[in-house]
Amino acid sequence: MDHVIRAVQPDEWAKAKDIRLASLQDPAAPVAFLETYEEALEQPDSFWQERAVGSSPRHRTRSGQFIAEAPDGTWSGTVTLLIEEAGDMDFLGATSERAQGHLVGVFVRPEQRGTGLLGALVDAALDWAWSLEEPWLARVRLHVHEGNPRARAAYRKLGFVPTGKSLALEGSPSVAPGRDLELAINRP
């Protein structure tokens, strides 16, 4: 693989914005993300700057964003891991039963799919999650739309298994109706 997998730095907010906007233009976006391209495009630069600082794992934040950087400096993929402590309310409005990680914003550019970048990005996020001492994380989870069988298969190939939990996706203009299925991987 000719890509470098690394954490996003706070000063890379413009590139983080660009890859997020690209992900929201992907045909799978309505079953993969909880926001539309138009919603993201309306955000001011300060939003993207704060988001980059907040997702730089070197800054002891509650999230870490990792990217796959090609030799020419372009970003071919990204994943973000959110830290959920026991008792916290997650971004979906549910209370976390345990300290865990939550993978979100997973995207690999179409021309790079099937090259191993997804696995490398998820591995980087998991390595970071398992290295945390506070809070100690026993598992990492993610949600995948029932209408996205390719993503479900890819995550299962990486070791994620269904937890039996799901949530209905209703009333959001940015998400296709249906159910999100929860998958998780336990700490080795």
From TrEMBL:
Signal peptide segment: none
Gene source species: Streptomyces scopuliridis RB72
GO function term, MF aspect, one: acyltransferase activity, transferring groups other than amino-acyl groups
Keywords: Acyltransferase, Transferase
Residue numbers spanned by region Disordered: 51-71
Record-linked SUPFAM superfamilies: Acyl-CoA N-acyltransferases (Nat)
This protein's name: Acetyltransferase
Domain N-acetyltransferase: 17-188
One Pfam short name: Acetyltransf_1
